[in-house]
């Protein structure tokens, strides 16, 4: 048994208290340790992703207790890829936070950042539902701190809404876990998959309620309409690097839906039939529509980006709710794309804010450093709106292709295509007002000289954009890998047998018995 | 016993949901606390209600209560307690900063009128 699987959780968990205790007065030391930690995390995550890329299911039994009695961490293709994506995103976000000086505007940014990473990594790796709840809470409580980093009344008010909404979500999660435990007597995912399949079709009330409650919880995390109300204010008010890191948090919800609803409640399971196509798909379609209309209607640049995140989560959800191998493969490709694109756009909106009085979409004097920022915004907007040549276009194409054979093809195609048009209009309007209209105004004499964003900020954003380009250039390889991931998800038997049948301390023969 | 527990869960949940739907921070936090009490009791009962039985293995005893929900409840209590403390602090900060404890977004006031109001 290798111990590497727990390293992505242990490393930030040790680093964060170290930063708080030993380096709290030295921002330079904090920065160095934080960056070094994240770089190490990338190396470990890449190793794990490489190790699981041949279809191996990595299993780590905490305390050597066998499942379902002990808690297990499981690394398959999907979870290791999400861990790698998180680590890579974290590096660029951290570079931006350091370059722009955001991390020095309040206290404990780096410690909270590491705790946040610990929660996200744990949520991706755990093989136990209650442990998933605990890691959700870890990432949430760190995100509460990050969300109100640097203070300010507007931010605190948005923080209250964010915390309250997520507290209600956590309570729902506990209700769901209680009902699942009452029905099946276990909370280990692999063990649950075995036991739920044994429930007879005429005794399904409890497990149906539990499945719907769980879907609601994950839908809150993934900001699926009508459970998206927490997102626009909190993402727009959060410091930009934090909002960029939050781009992966909505994906935690999407990941949990994929994991739970392919393994525990698979689409062909009779007791929960109809959950995906009757409930999830319409909600996802409405999310895409509302998100993209929000892009057009937004009065501020940061809100515009927040709504585009809702829209892109809707795209992911459409693809997931098809629950076919093609659909999941497309969803995973789109998850990678929309995480990078969303994060890049949040950072770009902060580049704009650095050189401008505010983010209102009104004509104002030119943004400091406008040429480069405008170019990056152009690239980010193209990626997010799904225009060629960037990966948003390919992602949408994959989703549409996966939906082609289904009964709901007309609805999906019409809504996705028309909302894409609306989002293009929204981004074009925002870009023209912020960057072009400014040129026609000219800079007034008495305007305060705005500082240009730091070079490191541009490097971080440029890095994210170049990752998007790489995701486009190597789209064939990425998509064939997500296809193997989806194949692994739809054949969960190796996962289940690895988790349930690996013996732990208890089942080892003891001398003299 | 079952009736007592289930009605307690029901009443606390109903009161909690009512309070959560209020507009001010304080009732909403109270409502969330009530909801977490309800969910704690609910988790406690999810392993069947057994009265007067030990949760750990002992010699000569055949009836046991399920120990796992008790561990789950313990975790849930700690987490909800900590979270409530966090939301009270953030809520207090927001109230002291803007002298307003509504949980929803207030309609936008034009920029020139915000002076002296906030």
Keywords:
heterodimer; A: about 525 residues; mainly alpha; two-stranded antiparallel ribbon; 20 helices; 2 strands; B: about 120 residues; Helix Hairpins; about 60% helix; elongated; disordered C terminus
Q: Rounded to an integer, what's the Rg of chain A over CA atoms? A: 23 Å
Outline type of chain B: elongated
According to DSSP, the number of beta strands of chain A is 2
Poorly predicted tracts of residues of chain A: none
Q: Structural class, from secondary structure content of chain B?
A: mainly alpha
Short description:
With 513 residues, chain A is mainly alpha-helical. Chain A has 20 helices and 2 strands.
Account of the protein in words:
The complex is a heterodimer of chains A (513) and B (118). Chain A is built from 20 helices and two strands. The two termini of chain A are 26 Å apart. In chain A, α1 (7-22) runs antiparallel to α4 (109-125) and α3 packs parallel to α14 (325-354). Helix content of chain A is 72%, strand content 2%. Chain A has a domain at 276-441 and 450-495. Chain A has a two-stranded antiparallel ribbon with strand order 1-2. By secondary structure, chain A is mostly helical. With 118 residues, chain B is mostly helical. Chain B has a single domain, classed as Helix Hairpins (Orthogonal Bundle). Helix content of chain B is 60%, strand content 0%. Chain B has three helices and no strands. In chain B, α1 (2-20) runs antiparallel to α2 (25-45) and α2 (25-45) runs antiparallel to α3 (68-98). Chain B starts with a helix and ends in a 20-residue tail after the last helix. In chain B, 26% of the residues are buried. Mean pLDDT of chain B is 85; it is low at 113-118. The chains are: A mainly alpha (513), B mainly alpha (118). Chains A and B meet through α5 and α6 of A and α2 and α3 of B.
């Amino acid at each position: 048994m290798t111990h590497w699987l727990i390293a992505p959780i242990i490393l930030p968990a040790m680093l964060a208290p170290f930063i708080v205790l030993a380096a709290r007065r030295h921002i330079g030391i904090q920065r160095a340790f934080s960056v070094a930690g994240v770089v190490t995390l990338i190396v470990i995550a890449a190793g794990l992703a490489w190790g699981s890329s041949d279809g191996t299911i990595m299993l780590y039994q905490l305390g050597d207790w066998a499942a379902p009695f002990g808690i297990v961490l499981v690394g398959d293709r999907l979870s290791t890829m999400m861990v790698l994506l998180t680590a890579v995103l974290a590096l660029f976000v951290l570079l931006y936070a350091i370059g722009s000086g955001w991390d020095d505007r309040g206290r404990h940014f780096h410690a909270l950042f590491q705790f946040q990473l610990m929660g996200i990594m744990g949520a991706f790796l755990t093989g136990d539902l209650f442990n998933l709840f605990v890691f959700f809470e870890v990432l949430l409580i760190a995100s509460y701190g990050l969300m109100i980093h640097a203070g300010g009344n507007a931010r605190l008010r948005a923080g209250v809404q964010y915390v309250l909404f997520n507290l209600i979500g956590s309570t729902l999660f506990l209700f769901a876990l209680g009902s699942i435990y009452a029905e099946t007597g276990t909370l280990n995912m692999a063990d649950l998959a075995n036991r739920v399949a044994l429930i007879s079709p005429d005794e399904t009330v409890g497990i149906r309620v539990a499945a719907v409650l769980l879907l609601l919880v994950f839908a809150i995390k993934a900001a699926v309409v009508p459970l998206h109300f927490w997102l626009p204010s909190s993402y727009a008010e959060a410091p930009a690097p934090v909002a960029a890191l939050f781009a992966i948090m909505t994906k935690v919800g999407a990941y949990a839906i994929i994991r739970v609803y392919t393994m525990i409640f698979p689409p062909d399971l009779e007791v929960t039939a109809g959950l995906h196509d009757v409930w999830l798909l319409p909600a996802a379609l409405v999310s895409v529509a509302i998100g993209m209309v929000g892009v057009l209607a937004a009065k501020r640049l940061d809100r515009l980006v927040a709504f585009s995140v809702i829209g892109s989560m809707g795209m992911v959800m459409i693809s997931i709710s098809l629950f076919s191998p093609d659909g999941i493969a497309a969803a995973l490709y789109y998850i990678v794309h929309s995480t990078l694109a969303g994060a890049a756009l949040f950072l770009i909106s902060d580049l704009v804010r650095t050189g401008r009085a505010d983010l209102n979409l009104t004509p104002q004097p030119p943004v400091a450093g406008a040429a480069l920022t405008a170019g990056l915004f152009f690239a980010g907007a193209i990626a997010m709106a799904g225009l060629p040549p960037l990966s948003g276009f390919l992602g949408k194409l994959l989703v549409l292709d996966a939906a082609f054979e289904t009964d709901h093809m007309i609805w999906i195609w019409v809504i996705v295509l028309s909302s894409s048009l609306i989002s293009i209009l929204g981004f074009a309007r925002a870009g023209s007002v912020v960057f072009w209209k400014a040129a026609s105004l000219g800079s007034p004499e008495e305007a305060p000289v705005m500082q240009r964003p730091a070079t490191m900020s541009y490097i971080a954003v440029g890095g994210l954009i170049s990752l998007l380009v790489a995701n486009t250039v190597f789209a064939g390889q990425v998509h064939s890998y997500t296809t193997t991931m989806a194949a692994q998800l739809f054949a969960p038997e190796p996962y289940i047998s690895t988790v349930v049948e690996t013996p732990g301390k208890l089942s080892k023969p003891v001398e003299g018995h | 016993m079952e009736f007592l527990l289930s009605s307690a869960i029901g009443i606390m949940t109903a009161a909690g949901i009512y309070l959560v739907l209020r507009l001010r921070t304080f009732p909403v936090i109270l409502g969330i606390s009530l909801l977490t009490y309800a969910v704690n009791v609910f988790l406690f009962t999810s392993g069947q209600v057994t009265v007067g039985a030990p949760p750990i293995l002992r010699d000569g005893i055949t009836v046991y209560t399920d120990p796992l929900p008790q561990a789950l409840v313990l975790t849930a209590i700690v987490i909800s307690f900590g979270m409530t403390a966090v939301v009270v602090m953030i809520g207090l900060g927001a109230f002291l900063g803007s002298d307003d404890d509504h949980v929803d977004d207030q309609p936008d006031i034009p920029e020139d009128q915000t002076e002296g109001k906030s």
